[in-house]
Every structure is written in structure tokens, then in C-alpha cells.
Amino acid sequence: GAVVSQHPSWVICKSGTSVKIECRSLDFQATTMFWYRQFPKQSLMLMATSNEGSKATYEQGVEKDKFLINHASLTLSTLTVTSAHPEDSSFYICSATRRKTNTEAFFGQGTRLTVV
Amino acid sequence: DQQVKQNSPSLSVQEGRISILNCDYTNSMFDYFLWYKKYPAEGPTFLISISSIKDKNEDGRFTVFLNKSAKHLSLHIVPSQPGDSAVYFCAASLDNYGQNFVFGPGTRLSVLP
């Protein structure tokens, strides 16, 4: 099956620094990638939808300048948490849908971010 | 080697009947399970979850059953509605934070009017 690789799987950073998370589709071209955030004991919250070559569409309440999303190619999308603060500590997960089909979604393994 | 399996890639059910989606896992350390639903051109959305300390969780028309000894869980939708037609993903993790979040390949449910 299609594979989505997310890196890093965990990261610890100092408050005020920026962290970049990568999401790669390894064996298919991803038309669209989704970025989610999960708080403890809660479901995934969609943050933004990223289409290759265009600006990401952010969900209400998600700060665009805080969470920078770049989808420069059909196999790579990045999420950069800028000027991270402890409240940004969370689990971030991406998923990708394959070109020409919108019914399948492939998930990355997620990234646990801890801001100290 | 898939740790979370959904052996039925598709399922068709008549409107008003029960839909049963199955999921099997291999890692006995998983202790939190979730179901996600995905419509075409949209991201997956959370549906229902269950902790390993329970064997059943119900939310409206949706009920998830967990059989730990068999490493099997199922999602029941009663009654099924045409709007339920979507792809359903089973997911498992080692804790309810999702440190090791493993998704199944999905089952496409079609509810026929």
C-alpha cells in the first residue's frame, strides 16, 4: 500500500525556536495533504489542507503565521511551527490523498512536539 | 507487516440496515482505538474511540466493540444512511495521546437507498 513518511517522529525544542515537520508520500503523488493536531484524550483536529503548488487552506482558529505550511511538490509537504511555545506541544499528524482519487487517505506516523 | 488490518476494502449495505466494519490488530500493546470517516476530497474526521479497558462504546447510531483476546474491533452503524457512505479508517495507538498512531487501510462503505 501507499506509504506516507513523517519526520521527525518526536522533537523537543526550546521556547521561541521554530520546528519543521516533513510529510512525504514515498510511492505516490499526493494531490492533497492534510495536517492534524491531536490533544491528549481528544480526536484529531484538522489544521489545514494543503494542495500542491497553492496556498494552504487553514481551518478556523488556526493561525496561519504560526503554522506555516508549504506543499512545494507532489511528494512533500512541510509544517513549520514558528516561535514555538509550550502550549504548542502536541501530536501532529499528516495524511495524503493520491492524485486522481479522493477516497483514500494515507497517514503519516505522527510527530510528537514538546516545547520546553 | 500491517499492524492494523481492515480486510474488507469495500462494503455495500441497504439503507436502514446495519453496517458492520471490522478491524484486526496484531500488537497486543495497543490500548486505544479510534475510527475515522473520510469523504472524497476531504480529510479524515474522527468518529468514535474506545479504550482497552472497555469492550463497548456507543455514540448515537455508532457503536464500537472491542474484543481484546481476539485483537478485533468492529464499528456498527445502525440504521445506515446514504450519508454514511465514505471510507472508514480504524486506528490504534499505545496510549490515547497517539504516540504510535497506526492506521488501517480503510474500508469503503456504500449505503444504498
Could you explain how this protein is built, in words?
Chain A has strands at residues 4-7, 10-13, 19-25, 30-38, 44-51, 57-58, 67-73, 76-81, 90-98, 105-107, 111-115. Chain A is an all-beta fold. Chain B has no helices and eleven strands. In chain B, a hairpin with a 2-residue loop joins strand 6 and strand 7 (62-67). The radius of gyration of chain B is 13 Å and the shape is globular. Mean pLDDT of chain B is 87; it is low at 96-100. At the A-B interface, strand 4, strand 5, strand 9 and strand 10 of A face strand 4, strand 5, strand 9 and strand 10 of B.
Blueprint (SSEs and pairs):
The complex is a heterodimer of chains A (116) and B (113).
Chain A: E1 4-7, E2 10-13, E3 19-25, E4 30-38, E5 44-51, E6 57-58, E7 67-73, E8 76-81, E9 90-98, E10 105-107, E11 111-115
Parallel strand pairs in A: 2-11
Antiparallel strand pairs in A: 1-3, 3-8, 4-5, 4-9, 5-6, 7-8, 9-10, 9-11
Chain B: E1 4-5, E2 10-14, E3 19-25, E4 32-38, E5 45-51, E6 56-59, E7 62-67, E8 72-77, E9 86-93, E10 102-103, E11 107-112
